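Researcher: Last one for today. Full complex below.
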Amino acid sequence: MRPVTSQGATGELALVSSLCGLISTSSFESMTSMSCAIHEGGELGYALAVSFGAVMDNPDLIVTCLIGDGEAETGPTAAAWHLTKYLDPVESGAVIPILHVNGFKISERTIFGCMDDKELICLFTGYGYQVAIVETLELIDIELASTLDWALGEIKKIQLAARSGKPILKPRWPMIILRSPKGWTGPKKVDGEFIEGSFRSHQIPVPNANKDEDHLRILQSWLQTYDPSRLLKDGMPAKSILDIIPEKDSKKLGQLKQTYDSYQPLNMPDWKNFAVEKFQHVSCMQETGKFLNEVVLNNPKSFRIFSPDELESNKLGDVLKNTGRNFQWDEYARANGGRVIEILSEHCCQALLSGYTLTGRTGLFPSYESFLGIIHTMMVQYSKFNKIAQDVKWRGDLSSINYLETSTWARQEHNGFSHQNPSFIGAVLNLKPEAARVYFPPDANCFLSTIHHCLKSRNYVNLMIGSKQPTAVFLSAEDAAEHCKKGASIWKFASNDGGHTPDVVIVGVGVEVTFEVVKAAELLRALLPDLRVRVVNVTDLMVLAAESHHPHALSHTHFQDLFTEDRPVCFNYHGYATELQGLLFERPRLDRISVKGYNEEGSTTTPFDMMLVNSVSRFDVAARAIKGATKHNEKVKEKLDEVLKEIEKRVLEVKQYISTQGKDPEDLYDMPKF
Amino acid sequence: MRPVTSQGATGELALVSSLCGLISTSSFESMTSMSCAIHEGGELGYALAVSFGAVMDNPDLIVTCLIGDGEAETGPTAAAWHLTKYLDPVESGAVIPILHVNGFKISERTIFGCMDDKELICLFTGYGYQVAIVETLELIDIELASTLDWALGEIKKIQLAARSGKPILKPRWPMIILRSPKGWTGPKKVDGEFIEGSFRSHQIPVPNANKDEDHLRILQSWLQTYDPSRLLKDGMPAKSILDIIPEKDSKKLGQLKQTYDSYQPLNMPDWKNFAVEKFQHVSCMQETGKFLNEVVLNNPKSFRIFSPDELESNKLGDVLKNTGRNFQWDEYARANGGRVIEILSEHCCQALLSGYTLTGRTGLFPSYESFLGIIHTMMVQYSKFNKIAQDVKWRGDLSSINYLETSTWARQEHNGFSHQNPSFIGAVLNLKPEAARVYFPPDANCFLSTIHHCLKSRNYVNLMIGSKQPTAVFLSAEDAAEHCKKGASIWKFASNDGGHTPDVVIVGVGVEVTFEVVKAAELLRALLPDLRVRVVNVTDLMVLAAESHHPHALSHTHFQDLFTEDRPVCFNYHGYATELQGLLFERPRLDRISVKGYNEEGSTTTPFDMMLVNSVSRFDVAARAIKGATKHNEKVKEKLDEVLKEIEKRVLEVKQYISTQGKDPEDLYDMPKF
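Model: Here's the assembly. Have a good evening.
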């Protein structure tokens, strides 16, 4: 919604008031506009979908959602009308969408305002609704009241049928179209220009009331139409107004527990029961799927997964072992409940997740890495709402909002350049440090520990990034737990600094790029046994932030313990190098630190070629390490040219193999040996 | 579209083939699938809107756009169906959308696949179309051919009427729904599971043909259904196939000029004719609006503006002086042409801009700063397409794609926290340096020079950020031209280093934050006349990138000329500090450089309070400068505490004024005097 700073939204305000009245006298105890929770969605056009998220697993909740005809032009709203098709009337409540057609946006006419009744009824009937039009201005309160009663009756019919085991096939949920002039009841004309019924009522209709006599008179006579003497008495609202407020708190708008304090912690299984043996290749996602299956079983009414049809492709299919996809238009899924919603609209997924989380439950949004960027502004809006909400004393905690990225740029089996976009990481990094959490668990056990932590956490934006392809398991369950707790550690099994200051530190942040770092250490051990190499993995990105810039940021001492005081440090990073560089900026002695990451290079090529073209392969790491280390180790300096030549030779061999065979040499992924 | 790597898309492939055949025999010479231009839009669901952009001002072009029922679930596609309402049949061509309903996405059923004919016809009739359903598999080629002929006839009818001065009111453009089984004509079953008509035909239907005898046989008999002996002869396509290829190049798909080489440079007015006098406050946007009005006049058929209904609000309303908003459903705008489209869907705006630019014309997308992030992944997809296209020899240049951000976080008169999001800058920074261009013109003259440059440029992604409120003009037209050419300069009028090494360099990047820097210089001159301060403004952000990292990056020497070798440098930056830090990372001696920028703090507060809460006010800059300068100037060190106290006192005074008066002290914006 555009801001309600003035007359512009008089229509909306009048409507909200009449709704409030209706709600308090409604026979449906739990009906509420959920305005606190969903207003934040207005600007980006996703309030409608947020409402659907709010009523899921809240069978007695009915949310009215007012949609301006401006925001109705947005894609996210246009897609969200379909969401009744994902609402099982047994387990979930209902939404009454009210499309408010006043004909104008800030200054242009609206699409819906220029559609006649036939066009509108046709469109929304096609979306699956029963449509009622409310437009008789002289009787608008009565008409709206009776229409809402009709809507409630229709909802009750659908719910009763479903809840008594005889669900209506493709139930046609009610929706309301409210036609009223923009700026209705405001000034008719100012300076000879129409205000009521025109775009000019948007924002400030009488701009010069503080310096122009005529404007002041217009303002005065407008405000007098509200008859303040009837509304106010002795500086207080009159009894007739106060009487509208329901007696019971539970009937007051905004005092529903769902709107301010409804957090239900999940019943979490022990992730260590799902841990795998180390020194094998295992898919992080497959193991996570098994774990999530248990989360679903343990939390049949307070955990949901929203995905743009990528669960199977992301190898998380095990979550479907004990639950289904909740799509009511599919005859095989109809009226069967189900914890999973797969709609190919990231906007809908994000809005459903927001609505579900804001009403106290916990959700997960797994996605191809490249597609979460689609909803980055929605995530930022959510975080802004939550930042302000945290400042309000009477608000309780919320579950964190949880994102899982896989099918990343690092493994482009058949997709290619269009599917390479790790930019959602940067979007989370730009949030306030209190909320921002980004994790790169380096193996399956670390991923299990991380997702367990995230689903239990509160008030954060958690982003977890992992691989769906089998990758090396480096840490036992116990070591993984310890590593994730610290956020970053020296991997002694791959280091040969003997606990002393090394010549160089090589650091992996991300699954595949960490494997390359460990393989680089193996390579360096073979080519240059005199080089003292330390291998570090960072699983919690935020530990790298400059001291005091993030709650997880390593103290200066801890940072030095890992990265030494003055030795070259080569970061091999999953995301864009510049974002990690920005994060590290106020750490001391940056001239010794180099960062390589995804560099917008790639195609439908082999996994290893993706490492090569983005300069994050083991060979690149090894070459950077050697060049950096020459400063501190004379023996290395002597052999520099020779070793670099050997590395170059190996790169060429691999490139040739890939270009002739169309696949990576198989031994490339052998578990590193030290 | 999901990638066509295998059988999954057999249906689509067959269809495309039959379309190609049709097109070559069609009576409409210019009909084309524009597949090169629009395929890149598939993944994010915006191919449909890109098609509409392509036909605008191409009156003889008809684009068929195939929309999968998966991508049809996306918001961008759901909104784009309305775009016929923005198509004037006199000046523009037409789109034939073909919704291909095969019922499945990667693994879940689709919404459209579960809607019956009545539901589908109702929905698309509501959107404004005439709907034809093609579904008779036995006769699919004939049915599709005759349906396309029908569609072409309907288009011709609408165009003829409009072009002979009798436009049809609310013309109902044709669209086609094609129902065919997913994986049609592929293997029926593999390992006992249905393939044809099931989601399993997505991607690889016979995965083990290289190691399993049964699979190999299935693959073989499937491929034999194509009857290769009929299609191929002596290792070449048979004559019957080759005969399908049209003789004339102009009838070959992909050889239409629009698809590969159609760049039309704009006829640009001289921006200096619009320049303003310096030392006054002028709105960059208002002056830019006047300039754009002239661009519109000079280029009546090759320049368009796409805006989410924010032109007036962004103070660019002057572009409407000689042209209108092209919205055919508005009776007052109908059949009147118009260079401006204002739809409240950033996704539609971006896709229209992409389609328009990809077919050789030039567009501009002005937006509130906070809302361009909505389309950041679409912009990235566009850039990826363009990066690859640039590598292809036979492709010509394209106009740059141009974004203008105003209504920024720095002026939150009535919007507030939800409208503060400068993250689109970071999205552009992550592009390949060859394409990424970000400009912060510090005043109206610099803005004119910049937009003139951008609209003339080719193959870039240009992001220009400016203020719509009156702000100080610091540079004359000549100085502005020189400054913009350099990208960054020392502002001597505000500096007191006398051309020698200063004690401190203070740098503004962005309109409002630069004003604060200049005011900080004024303040420091008064409080600490002994302090040698250099003021620098950066208008072309990319000059700061580390040497060789960007074509605009300053050489090491030039960087030192501006920022000295070792003096403290305080950046006051419009965007998120971390992105500038990332950009600067490989510059030497970073420990002397500090960056402040938008820090996710704010509300509906005064402009100056926004500076204060994000620590970029003149007082913050002055305090940082003094603290940094103590190292190099003993006199400053002595007075440090005293001056800091004085600054603190002034901050308190201003804060108190704002909190009691609800506005900024008026003298705060006086032109700085030196």
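Residues 1-42 of chain B have pLDDT under 50 and may be disordered. The first strand of chain B starts at residue 31 and ends at 32.
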